[in-house]
Amino acid sequence: xxxxxxxxITATELKINLAKYLDYVIDNNEVVVSKNGKxxxxxxxxxxxxxxxxxxxxxxxDYLETKKQVR
Length: 71
What we know:
Helix content is 31%, strand content 20%. The chain has 71 residues and is of the alpha+beta class.
């Protein structure tokens, strides 16, 4: 099964037809916007269950309770 390519438009095209592209993205599609010939942003549908990949974190409280030093 082949996947359709993500449409690429210019920033000017986006400014002129913003409502059209918002509706397109709301319908669960993506759009890449370029500026000066370089890819600048990707518009994707909004999702409340989005979790950015590769987030590494530690709780500060763990260091306070055990008095560990961060080096």
